Amino acid sequence: MNIIYLPQASSEIQALFAKTRFAAGGRWLMIPVTSERVLDDVKNLIQIRVKPKLR
């Protein structure tokens, strides 16, 4: 997760990130989508992770 995004994330995502250990070049987050806010966080995290194609 981009640490810059973390303060904007929901409290559920922040807590999950805090308790998930760093491994293999990143953190593997298993995120239970329990609300619209968490779903929005997941979408934002995917956008951060996906590298845009250069034209």
How would you describe this protein?
The structure is a single chain. This protein has 55 residues and is mainly alpha-helical. The chain is 42% helix and 0% strand. It has two helices and no strands. It is globular and about 35 Å long. The model has no long low-confidence stretch (mean pLDDT 82).
Task: Lay out the secondary structure.
Elements: H1 11-19, H2 36-49
Residue-averaged pLDDT: 82
N- and C-termini, Cα separation: 26 Å
Helix content: 40-55%
The helix-and-strand class reads mainly alpha
Count of helix runs: 2
The ordered H/E elements are HH
| Global geometry | globular
Major beta sheet summary = none
Radius of gyration: 12 Å
Low-confidence stretches: none
Question: What key phrases describe this protein's structure?
Answer:
0% strand, 42% helix, 2 helices, single chain
Summarize the structure.
By secondary structure, the protein is mainly α. 42% of the residues lie in helices and 0% in strands. The chain is built from two helices and no strands.
